[in-house]
Specification:
35% of the residues lie in helices and 22% in strands. The chain contains 15 helices and 18 strands.
Length: 523
């Protein structure tokens, strides 16, 4: 009997979680509530359909922040409104409409990047193709007043840059095009001189096709706006080049329209044929006086034994406003919120502090998470793990851990595998990787650079819902109904179990073998 007890004690010491997790009443209650009363999609409904797209600097983001903080407070958590930056002006998007006014008219499918101008009410005008040389501009400058101008290039999401640096580039390209135009005029003369021969015409030299090459000149001439071709679904981002230098007196003044490429092609052909027709747009892009501060919203569940050690779960609260942020990152922020509620509802008293963080400004360059890491440099060594969900509404299918972390995660995975048999979770060993030198493109990136473990879930679509993140990412299709409820609910409970399980360990999650540090010689 004595030998048996000694072996049992040794087993418990080697595998504390695989025993305790299975019998922890809080863990069991988290699963039970998550199965019977999962409110993740309710939170997503509010974020998407009451607030909508949530850019920092917008009323929607501020309202969503206040609401999320109120929910953390309602659930009994401590709340921190972590001011992490400000923008010189704010931006709010209203509805937008457009029509082709011709014998075979049509409604136009388009969008505009954030932090760009709207129309001055309903504006109607004729259509021209942009000039490429000074001579072309001089020839058409009188007709530009009151025109919509078709510009070159294919939309990548960004607006046309109107900064001084962009003007300098345009000026240099105008010189290049002027020289090419001289050569082309000579080619035209040569082709004309041999028009009666059988010798084929010499081809003209291509000019620089920089979009909106005469941007400032066209604006001064009185154009209504510029129109660029866009693939569908339409992706629009924000004015990253000029936003930090904007003042209320120096805002852009004309709309930057990204039009469905199929409609653009038809309209371009009509304009090239010099047919007279009009386009009509009503674009309600509105501004607010700055500076506009933005905040990370942090819900805190204090640790009972190791209050200065942390387990973080997170997603980013901001979202581009061409859609409503149902996927990017409503599918990450609402499981984080609901996981926090489940832990509180289950009566969780974690040994180390749990932080549920809803990041600000991820879409503008990881602003909220970068600021937090900079402000909490001294605390980074006390973070057991940073779990971030920002990969879409698919379901957790695996979790990868270093060899030194496997024992601690084994019991947690066993609990997660009791949630729903349709979604088994595999525990996989993660080989050591070089520590990143620069943050990758989501909020776990700044933590990884500092060597903080970012153990999270690998995602999949085992039921075959044909989800495509590329179709939705930063496009007009990023909506509430693109999230997958049963996947979201499973992710919520799995997140709560993982985070609470790590917070209940007698030690921080090991960092051994997680990252490979560069040697001094390599540095």
């Amino acid at each position: 009997m004595r030998i048996f007890l000694m072996l049992l004690m040794a087993f418990c010491l080697l595998s504390p979680l695989s025993v305790n997790a299975q019998t922890d009443p809080v863990m069991q209650k988290i699963v039970k509530i998550g199965q019977s009363d999962n409110q993740c999609m309710d939170h997503l409904d509010i974020l998407c359909n009451r607030f909508g797209g949530r850019l920092i600097g917008s009323d929607a983001y501020e309202n969503a922040s206040i609401w999320a903080a109120s929910k953390f407070d309602e659930w009994g958590m401590e709340v921190v409104m972590d001011e992490c930056g400000e923008l010189p002006v704010g931006f709010n998007r209203g509805p937008w409409f457009g029509k082709l006014l011709a014998e075979e008219g049509m409604s136009l499918h388009f969008a505009t990047p954030s932090y760009t101008s709207g129309t001055k009410g309903v504006q109607r005008g004729h259509v021209l193709i942009e000039p490429k040389t000074e001579a072309e501009f001089e020839k058409m400058k009188g007709a530009l007043k009151g025109a919509w101008v078709l510009i070159a290039g294919q939309n990548k999401g960004w607006p046309i840059d109107f900064s001084a640096e962009a003007d300098t580039l345009r000026d240099s390209l105008k010189v290049v095009n002027a020289e090419i135009e001289k050569q082309n005029n000579q080619i035209r003369r040569e082709n004309w001189s041999k028009r009666h021969s059988n010798e084929p015409d010499k081809l003209l030299l291509p000019m620089s096709d920089e979009p909106a090459l005469f941007y400032r000149e066209m604006v001064e001439a009185g154009i209504l706006g510029i129109i660029q071709s866009s693939s569908t679904p339409i992706r629009v981002l924000y004015d990253r080049k000029n936003i930090n230098d904007m003042t209320f007196e120096t805002l852009p003044t004309i709309p930057d329209i990204k039009l469905d490429e199929h409609q653009y092609k038809k309209i371009y052909q009509m304009a090239r044929e010099r047919r007279y027709f009009q386009l009509e747009f009503d674009i309600r892009n509105h501004w607010k006086m700055g500076p506009v501060k933005y905040h990370n919203v942090i819900g805190v569940i204090p640790g009972t034994e190791f209050p200065d050690e942390y387990v973080i779960m997170s997603g980013h609260l901001d979202a581009f406003d061409v859609g409503t942020g149902g996927v990017d990152d409503g599918s990450g922020v609402t499981p984080t919120m609901e996981a926090a509620r489940l832990i509180m509802e289950a009566g969780g008293k974690p040994k180390r502090t749990i932080l549920a963080i809803l990041w600000a400004g991820e879409e503008f360059g990881l602003l909220g998470s970068t600021n937090w890491v900079e402000q909490h440099e001294a605390d980074l060594g006390n973070i057991s793990n940073m779990l971030n969900r920002d990969g879409g509404p698919e379901v957790p299918v695996a979790i990868s851990a270093s060899a030194a972390q496997m024992a601690d995660l084994k019991g947690i995975v066993e609990i997660i595998n009791t949630i729903n048999p349709d979604f088994p979770l595999e525990l996989k060993e993660r080989k050591p990787r070089p520590k990143p030198e620069r943050a990758w493109g989501t909020d776990s990136g700044p933590f990884a650079v500092k060597g903080v473990p970012t153990v999270g879930f690998d995602l999949g679509d085992p039921k075959g819902y044909n989800f495509s993140y590329g179709e939705i990412w930063h496009t007009e299709r990023d909506l509430y109904n693109k999230s997958i409820p049963e996947y979201q609910e499973q992710a919520t409970v799995a997140t709560a179990v993982l985070v609470y399980g790590l917070a209940m360990l007698d030690h921080k999650l090991s960092r051994e073998g997680y990252y490979i540090e560069k040697s001094e010689e390599e540095k």
